[in-house]
Amino acid sequence: MSRRPTSSLAACVWIPLFSLRCEEARHEGLATYPTALLAPDTTRKLWQVSSLARHAGVKPGMTVSQAIGLCSSLRLIEPDPVHYDERFANLLSALNEVSPVVEAAELGLVYLGTDGLEGIFGAPEQIVAAIRRTVGRSDGRTVRLGYGLGKFVAWVAATRSKPDEAIIVPVGCEKAFLASQPISVLPLDSDIHRRLRHLGIRTLGALAAIPEAAITAQFGAVGKRLWRLAAGRIAEPVAGRIAPEAIVAALTFFTPVGERELLVHSLDKLIGRALKHPRRIGWRVHAVRLRADLECGDVGAPTNRSWLVTVLLKDPTADGERIAAPLKTRLEQSPPTGAVERLVLEFTAFAPGTTELQLFARDAQAAARAGQQRALQSAAREIRMRVKRSSLYHIIEVQPWSRLPERRYALIDYEP
Amino acid sequence: MVPSARTPLRTDRLRAVNEPRAVTVELNESGRMTVGRPDGQTVGQVEAILESWRIDDEWWRQTISRSYLELLLAGGKRIVVFQDLLTGLWFMQLP
Questions:
Q1: How high is the ipTM of this complex?
Q2: What is the reported pTM?
Q3: Number of structural domains, chain A?
């Protein structure tokens, strides 16, 4: 079994409030309003809050009623996780062009392994510039970039960088760079954070100055890890993912087939079979090839006739219909020039996804939900076109505990 | 009128659900209560008062004072009405 590619030098690409930025990119002018994204779960609390809304006192985790009370002009948005996943998959695909070692940490946070890239791009500044060009092309949002040895240093550098300005930590300077950083950059829970502050430890330098054994005695294994991170002793490598090999599904006909309907039906079957392949789990299909071995014609006609169509999907997907659509169009526009003896479908390239995407692909029900969501969006668009206004609403909890019945729930426009 | 119980909201964004609907409640000659709509249609004759409760709230802002009745109508239908104790008007609302 092949090992996952790793890289000790890391670049961190961070787009804060990624989901909210996706909405702002989708709805023109939204960025000029105080905006909040509702949580994707059932709590109906605020998830991500724009800076304008923050200035008005709105914070993530607030209920809708609290937020509206603080900022009456607040625009609430229903979350669209499938859309965010798709945008993130696009970003990952674009970053894969810069480095083969790409690790998605969470939506909007990606690590790139940069070992060996200096031979292609040059100094770290050039590597970072290449990443910025790529991110800008795929995603024009405000991005923060950090570069250094190991994921933690790269992450801290990204969090400290200004928008559209990278911080590069030269190899060997990690300890000096980390020393002045606040302890809040460490992956620690609120309890340890509070205890460290009570001990007067506010920077990583102050933490690293304490003997490792003393921190371990106080905080156990977690403390040991925190100390080692603060002291620059841990350089966690970026672990890329191995792109799966091509997935092939083939169908040999007993008698050569020339009818297009039958070919289309066979294509659907092949796509269904290929999507069910275990290697496909956790990946979205990016490139598809459909080829056909054609029946040899009359005696004297050239042998080994074939037909081939290659499609690069604009948005990588695990949805059979979306994979089939461009292939069917090609079947319609330039059909095979003879009867087909064997039809072969190949998934040749895949887009890596986030953990959520992997779960998403793993979970057939989730895939079905995504299909329903798309169908609902399409229906909503049609209704809006016909009646010239939005007629679909979500029910959201406003003050479910209220004694006044009309206060408990409200309708919010459903905007696909 | 029932005072607005909500922080002012933009109507294109949030719409309240289960807002009170105005009704009329009258006693006829025989002393039976009848619930009707403002357009004159009858909702039903009251067979029994199943429950009553009162809500007094928001005295610090715009006082809300309501006397709720759960009614059993002729035919078996159950509805909830309340009288706004500040204005004397009647409204129907889901519980």
A1: 0.79
A2: 0.55
A3: 4
